[in-house]
TrEMBL record:
<dbReference type="Pfam" id="PF13638">
    <property type="entry name" value="PIN_4"/>
</dbReference>
<dbReference type="InterPro" id="IPR027417">
    <property type="entry name" value="P-loop_NTPase"/>
</dbReference>
<comment type="similarity">
    <text>Belongs to the PhoH family.</text>
</comment>
<dbReference type="InterPro" id="IPR051451">
    <property type="entry name" value="PhoH2-like"/>
</dbReference>
<dbReference type="InterPro" id="IPR003714">
    <property type="entry name" value="PhoH"/>
</dbReference>
<comment type="similarity">
    <text>In the N-terminal section; belongs to the PINc/VapC protein family.</text>
</comment>
<feature type="domain" description="PIN">
    <location>
        <begin position="10"/>
        <end position="135"/>
    </location>
</feature>
<keyword id="KW-0067">ATP-binding</keyword>
<dbReference type="InterPro" id="IPR002716">
    <property type="entry name" value="PIN_dom"/>
</dbReference>
<keyword id="KW-0547">Nucleotide-binding</keyword>
<dbReference type="Pfam" id="PF02562">
    <property type="entry name" value="PhoH"/>
</dbReference>
<dbReference type="InterPro" id="IPR029060">
    <property type="entry name" value="PIN-like_dom_sf"/>
</dbReference>
<protein>
    <submittedName>
        <fullName>Phosphate starvation-inducible protein PhoH</fullName>
    </submittedName>
</protein>
Length: 456
C-alpha cells in the first residue's frame, strides 16, 4: 500500500490589489505561505490616508501586520512568521517578506522571480486582482491567479432568480390549506420561503387571471410548501399609480409591499423597472400607509466611497448628480395628473423630494442606524461584500432595505459578477424567511428601447 503524497505547499505572493480588496486575505490560504514584497508595503503606506474604503482597508492590513510581527526580532523574519496561533481553523503557513528594491508592478514581478530562486521547493504563485499584472506574470513564466476567496458563488447562473414555474403535476395534486394551497415539493426543487411560483395552466376553481395562478411560498419543509396567491398589481390594483407590466414585476411589487419582508433584492438590466417599482412601493407605504417615516436613497458612486467634497453644496446636493435615475422616476411618480393613488399624490410638488425622500452618500453611513425607514441601495452591484454588510447592518427596527442592481454591468475595479456584494447578499440571505428576491428579465421602457437592445 502506497502512502498518499502530501499536498504541495505553495508560497503565495500577494499584490496590493488583493489586500486592498480584502484585508483578511492574509489568513485565507490555509497551510500555504504568504509573501509580501517591499513594493506592496510601500503602496499600502501611500494608500492609508483619508476616509475612503481603500484607505480603511490599507490601515487594517497594517494593523494585521503589526500584530503578526509583534514579539519577533528582525532576524527572525527571514525564516517567516507564523500566520496563525495553531488552533483549529487557523492558517498553518508562514508570513514571508521579499525585500527586493524598486516600486510598482515591475518590483512585484522581480520579487516573484527571486522568491522562485530562494524557495525552489515551493511553488510561488502571484495572486492579484489586476488582470494585466497576471498576464505579465504569466508571460514571464510566473504562475498567477485571481483572488477567489471572496467569491459569493462559483457560477452566477446558479444564483436563484426568485421566480420559478410550478410543475403541472405538482399543482394538479395541490390541496387547499388555510388561505392558500399545500403543494408537494418535487424532487430537487429548491423552493424556499418567499419563493415566487406560477403556472400558466391554472387550476380548476382558482384561476386568478388569464395568465394562470401566481403565488408566493409562505412556509416550507422537506416534503411540501404552503403557497398563497399574490395580489394582482397588473389588472386589479396599482401601487402609487404604477401597475406591473409582466409576471416578474407583479411578484416584485408583492415583495416590496409585504411588511414581513425586511430585505428585497431586485436584479435586472436597465429598463426592467427596478427603480420605478421600488419608489412607487416606498411612496405608497411612507405617505399613504405611514408604515415608514421617510425614504432613504443612496448608491455607489464611481469613486466608490471616496469623499464627494469636490462637488459644491450639501451632502444631498452633492449626491443629486449621481441619482439621475431616481430623480427621473420621482418626477414621473409625483407629476400632477399621473394617476397617483391619492389626492395628496396628485398635488405633490418638488417639496416631496425634500420632505420625505432623502438622498444620502455612502461616505457618511458608518455608525448610523435607520429607524422605520425605507432604504434604497441603488447600483448595489458596485459594492463589495464588506460594504453591503456595513450598509445592511445599519437597519434598525421597522426598516426595510431594497437592493437594486445589474450584475452584468459592474463598474468597480476588481469586482466581478461572482464577487459583487449584490450577488453575496442574494446568495447568503436566500434562505432567510424575511428576505425576498426577484430577477427581472424583460425591459418595459418603450418599443424603441426594446428593439434597440436587441438590434444594436
Amino acid at each position: 500500500m502506497t502512502t498518499p503524497k502530501p499536498p504541495e505547499r505553495r508560497v503565495y505572493l500577494l499584490d496590493t490589489s488583493v489586500l486592498i480588496h480584502d484585508p483578511t486575505a492574509l489568513f485565507r490560504f490555509e497551510e500555504h505561505d504568504i509573501c509580501l514584497a517591499m513594493a506592496v508595503l510601500e503602496e499600502l503606506d501611500a494608500a492609508k490616508e483619508g476616509l475612503s474604503e481603500v484607505a480603511r482597508n490599507a490601515r487594517q492590513v497594517s494593523r494585521f501586520l503589526d500584530a503578526l510581527l509583534a514579539g519577533h526580532a528582525p532576524g527572525e523574519l527571514a525564516e517567516g512568521v507564523p500566520l496563525g496561533a495553531g488552533g483549529p481553523g487557523d492558517p498553518a503557513g508562514l508570513l514571508r517578506f521579499e525585500t527586493s528594491p524598486g516600486g510598482g508592478d515591475a518590483a512585484i514581478l522581480a520579487a516573484a522571480q527571486q522568491l522562485r530562486e530562494r524557495l525552489p521547493e515551493q511553488t510561488p504563485v502571484l495572486v492579484s486582482k489586476d488582470i494585466n499584472l497576471r498576464i505579465r506574470a504569466q508571460v514571464a513564466g510566473i504562475a498567477a491567479e485571481d483572488y477567489e476567496s471572496d467569491r459569493a458563488i462559483d457560477d452566477v447562473d446558479l444564483l436563484p432568480t426568485g421566480v420559478d414555474p410550478l410543475p403541472a403535476e405538482a399543482w394538479a395534486a395541490a390541496t387547499a390549506e388555510g388561505q392558500g394551497w399545500r403543494v408537494e415539493r418535487p424532487a430537487g426543487a429548491p423552493w424556499r420561503v418567499n419563493q415566487c411560483l406560477y403556472t400558466a395552466d391554472g387550476f380548476e376553481g382558482v384561476v386568478r387571471s388569464a395568465d394562470g395562478f401566481e403565488g408566493v411560498v409562505r412556509s416550507a419543509d422537506a416534503e411540501a410548501v404552503h403557497l398563497e396567491p399574490v395580489s394582482d398589481y397588473r389588472h386589479r390594483r396599482s401601487v402609487w399609480g404604477v401597475r406591473a407590466r409582466n409576471l416578474e414585476q407583479n411578484f416584485a411589487l408583492n415583495l416590496l409591499m409585504d411588511p414581513e419582508i425586511d430585505l428585497v433584492s431586485l436584479i435586472g438590466p436597465a429598463g426592467t423597472g427596478k427603480t420605478l417599482l421600488t419608489l412607487a412601493a416606498g411612496l405608497a407605504q411612507t405617505l399613504d400607509e405611514g408604515r415608514y417615516r421617510e425614504i432613504i436613497a443612496t448608491r455607489a458612486t464611481v469613486a466608490l466611497g471616496e469623499e464627494i467634497g469636490y462637488l459644491p453644496g450639501t451632502e444631498e446636493e452633492k449626491m443629486t448628480p449621481w441619482m439621475g435615475a431616481l430623480m427621473d422616476n420621482l418626477e414621473v411618480l409625483t407629476a400632477p395628473g399621473a394617476g397617483a393613488a391619492s389626492d395628496w399624490a396628485r398635488a405633490a410638488s418638488a417639496d416631496l423630494l425634500h420632505s420625505r425622500v432623502r438622498i444620502r452618500s455612502l461616505s457618511f453611513m458608518r455608525g448610523r442606524t435607520f429607524l422605520e425607514k425605507f432604504v434604497i441601495l441603488d447600483e448595489a452591484q458596485n459594492l463589495t461584500a464588506k460594504q453591503m454588510k456595513a450598509l445592511i447592518t445599519r437597519a434598525g427596527p421597522g426598516t426595510k432595505m431594497v437592493c437594486l442592481g445589474n450584475i452584468g454591468q459592474i463598474d468597480t475595479p476588481y469586482l466581478t459578477e461572482a464577487t459583487s456584494g449584490l450577488t453575496y447578499v442574494v446568495d447568503r440571505l436566500k434562505d432567510w424567511p424575511h428576505s425576498g428576491h426577484v430577477t427581472l428579465r424583460r425591459g418595459e421602457r418603450s418599443r424603441l428601447a426594446d428593439y434597440a437592445s436587441e438590434a444594436l
